[in-house]
From TrEMBL:
Coiled coil: none annotated. Pfam families: GLEYA. Residues 7-18 have a biased composition (Pro residues). Residues 45-202 form the PA14 domain. Residues 1-33 are annotated as: Disordered. It comes from Septoria linicola. This is PA14/GLEYA domain-containing protein. InterPro entries: GLEYA_adhesin_domain, PA14/GLEYA.
Amino acid sequence: MAQAQSPKPPQYGQPQKPPKYNNPEPCESDYVTSTSYKTKITKTVTRTPYKLTTPRQQGVTSGIGGFTYTPIGTSGTITIYNGIVIPSDYWVLNHQAYIYPGVTGEYTFTSYNADDIVLLWFDPLAYAGWTRANANLVQVYDTPPQGFTGYPGETPVSFTVRLTAGTYYPIRVMAANGGGQAEFHLLVTAPDGTQFLGPQTAGSPYLVQYSCDGTSAPRFPAIGQQLT
């Protein structure tokens, strides 16, 4: 059986025409693609299964993270995006999108209270070649326990990068839990300090799934056929 051909990675760093925010049907602006896997994950998560495996759920979301499951010694369920309910104990969420900044300046990605792990890739590595070792941001649940009642929270982990207005930048965020308590929070702020991606954020023109012309910021490879 012939192997499916994935699209070539896009060329980055050159300003492009803005997406048609008033026409989200062909451009899919204001959203992040999200996929969910049921897996026996640990904080040593690696990339391979999530590039080539069909996910449990797939959809789009205008927000990211904001999940907490705190009971000790038990498991239950958490509600992720669009009312989808998944088991709280073992899961991986994989998000992919493009940032299309309207203002040139420094943009900051911040993870806090990760349980068990949050990883972020930016620019070409978000599209292809992403591994645990080359993530731009990593926060792992570790000693001391973080973020739960009665325990000190761990210092948030941030990644700041200067972006140019009118340029597409791919991003990828993975979060996972390997049993027990679970927590996932990620905030993305613009140069003026406003938050445009985080828990329960409304659609933002900073975010697109792909460009309207299909070449400046092409669709990400199909889930299960991600570039290695």
